[in-house]
Amino acid sequence: MFSNFDYDVIIRSLPYLFYDGMTFTLALTAFATVGGIIFGTLLAMMRLSGFAPISVLATGYVNLMRSVPLLLVIFWFYFLVPYIGQWITGAPRPVQVGAFVSSFVTFTLFEAAYFAEIMRAGIQSVPRGQVAAAQALGMTYLQTMGYIVLPQAFRNMVPVLLTQTIILFQDTSLVYVLSITDFLGAASKVAQRDGRLVEMYLFAALVYFVISFVASLLVRQLQRRVAIIR
Amino acid sequence: MITLSKVSKWYPNFQVLKQCSTHVEKGEVVVVCGPSGSGKSTLIKCVNGLEPFQEGTITVAGISVSDPKTDLPKLRARIGMVFQHFELFPHLTVMRNLELAQIKVLGRKQDEAAANGMRLLERVGLSAHARKYPGELSGGQQQRVAIARALAMDPIAMLFDEPTSALDPEMINEVLDVMVALAKDGMTMMVVTHEMGFARGVAHRVVFMDRGEIVEDAPTAEFFGKPRSERAQVFLSKILHH
Which residues on chain B are in Cβ contact (under 8 Å) with A136? Predict the structure, then answer.
């Protein structure tokens, strides 16, 4: 099988694979992680709110996103976002945002639902006495959340958040349906063009494996460093 | 300073507080005692609005706790509270625990808050531990930090909710010593505790609760000398004779 294995096609395409492909993959992962955690934390706070309309709204959103395949959501937003843009701006025609923007928005909104559940568990892991102590010191709801609850929730959940990020990193390959050149997309294009499917897909798998594996090792390191001393 | 008038509180199918009335004057130390489940912790949490109640009124420095127009965070900032389980913020250093609310709630400058925090740490004998995290301290030390944290806000009154109940016996005295010193300084204090030695030593009045009611509210000497109610007599005989 490896007798006519062409390593050269991999070497030749490295700049394209990494400079064009991996850059996008990492950018999308980073953006969707940061955006997803921020929006997800907001959703988690809404879900735990005592005010029913707000918690129902957030619960509905999280459940909807989590019960629809990501691929479907990507399609949805790609075709829907232009119309939403038109509706918001009042433009005469659907606002073309392009595949890039669409993918960033989609991943952020989709991942937020998962991050929301993680942050909800994190918030609930902080003892109620901590909230009482913060309130007794005169802190408002937002101060209590911002200085006391969320920092602890976040630290407790760092391993799970990063594990979710690794999954997100792998899921970004789904943007191929929007013909975006991410890492897998780039590998795929080279594979088709040069007829070197085995080489390219094996190499792509290897790269995903190495990055995900190293990242999971780093998670364990980081976990030790941010852990709260008890 | 603190006035409770006919405070009643219900859980869905259970009345925790029944028409509780008492008061704490400025500079007075009032100990609240009673068997467990008598509602004393619930009562003291009502004083700074951590627990809602359905009937009656509580005022602190003339401000109603249950009035929806009251700025509760602002009122709480003036009332210090010490909890059974310390509730220091575990992700912050001891110093940061003392500074945070001074800066964020009272709007003090960082260096002012730090100087004030250090002064109070010295007062509770823990200035050497300023840079440690709460988890690195013993229970008694954590509780003393918690007292310092409450004092850093320059409170007009201090509430103590069973401050020594979660401590190992050998650490109880270091916390009580701080509280005694505070009482001697003239701090207005409402203290839920089983430490009858503390009550006898520094309390001006003792409030005895049983099954959600204030059964007895008497000057300390009178309470320990000849409690009027049978329930208080039974409680005292159980707690003192062992």
Answer: 48, 50, 76, 79-81, 83, 150
Of A135, A139, A155, nearest to B50 by CB-CB distance is: A135
pLDDT in tens, B49-105: 999 999 999 999 999 999 999 999 999 999 999 999 999 999 999 999 999 999 999
List, for residues B198-213, the tens digit of each pLDDT value: 999 999 999 999 999 9
The pTM of this model reads 0.89
Distance between first and last Cα of chain A: 55
CA B89 to chain centre: 18
By C-alpha distance, the chain A residue nearest B101 is: A137
Question: For residue B188, what is the enclosing H or E element?
Answer: none
B100:A229 CB<8 A: no
Residue A172 is given by DSSP the state G
pLDDT digits (tens, 9 = 90+) for A52-102: 999 999 999 999 999 999 999 998 888 887 888 888 888 888 888 788 888
CA B185/CA B191 separation, integer angstroms:
16
- Chain A CB contacts of B104 below 8 Å: 139, 143, 147
Closest by Cβ to A139, choosing from B79, B83, B104: B104
Contact of A172 with A182, CB cutoff 8 Å: yes
Nearest to B132 by CA among B141, B120, B140: B141
Listed in sequence order, the residues at least 6 apart from A131 whose beta carbon sits closer than 8 Å to its beta carbon are A144, A148, A149
Supply the ipTM of this predicted assembly.
0.93
Nearest CA among B170, B215, B182, B218 for reference residue B30: B218
d(CA B136, CA B152): 21
**C-beta of residue A41 within 8 angstroms of C-beta of residue A62:** no
Structure tokens at B41: 């912790």
User: Within 13 Å, how many C-alpha atoms sit on residue B165's CB side?
Assistant: 15
Average pLDDT, chain B: 94
